[in-house]
Amino acid sequence: MNWNDLDFFPVMGEKLTAENTLRLDFTAHNQALEAVNLSDTQEFDQFVFAQLKSAGKKYGIGGYLEKRSIYRRSGVFATESAEFRNIHLGVDVWTAAGARIFAPLAGKVHSFQDNTGFGNYGPTIILEHEVEGKPLFSLYGHLALQDLQGLEVGKAYQAGELLCHVGPFPENGDWPPHLHFQLMWDLGENWGDYPGVAAEKDLEYYRENCPDPNLILGCKILNSI
Fold first, then answer.
1. Which of the chain's ends, N or C, has fewer CB atoms near its CB within 10 Å?
2. Mean pLDDT per 10-residue run, the chain (225 residues)?
3. Residue 98, phi-psi category: left (phi > 0), alpha (psi -120 to 50), beta (remainder)
4. What sequence ranges are listed for the domain M23ase beta-sheet core (predicted)?
5. What is the pTM of this model?
6. 3 touches 183 (CB < 8 A)
7. Buried b or exposed e, range 81-119, using 16+ CB within 10 angstroms
8. Where are the domains positioned within the chain?
9. Closest Cα to residue 136, out of 61, 60, 194?
């Protein structure tokens, strides 16, 4: 598939560029994380948005296949060492709660639900698309609860149509406000949910099933890494 031949509407309503977007690093290489109590969402929130304010940016971005250290904040990810999930499968767009999120291409609602629990997705919507005759699913996590009200499976969206909003904490799974945007070729039996973080032992499967969301987002600061 030649993604460059496809036309996508900006998920955040505007293109993510070097002028409005800052790459954020949540790996162990970012030693500043050591001074942050990540289990305190208010403190974590202040850490994230202080960086954006200092850089004069509206959005923070990053995360695809990033080996993250921040998942120690939640038991959702902490299992036996071989099963510990710390490889991020989506791209996160960190920005103010209430920011609007748009459908990047035509599709319909496959499923949705509120994935409750500290560190989980919170309100989540999955759209089903057809791209060159092949099904493709897009997931939007950490939304506002109001986005699920009145939503119906099968509801159609056109590219550029308002889909949902970045949710506030704690209703968004208790994270600093951001969109978790992820692509999947195959959902399996998942409904309103799909792993957004993988264990290293499962990375090859998820790398194949979850293509880089930046193929749709088109943020060039990610391509320059």
1. C
2. 90 98 92 90 97 98 87 51 76 98 98 95 98 96 98 98 98 97 97 94 96 96 73
3. left
4. 87-185
5. 0.94
6. no
7. eeebbbbbbbbbbbbebebebbbbbbbebbbbebbeebb
8. 3-223
9. 194
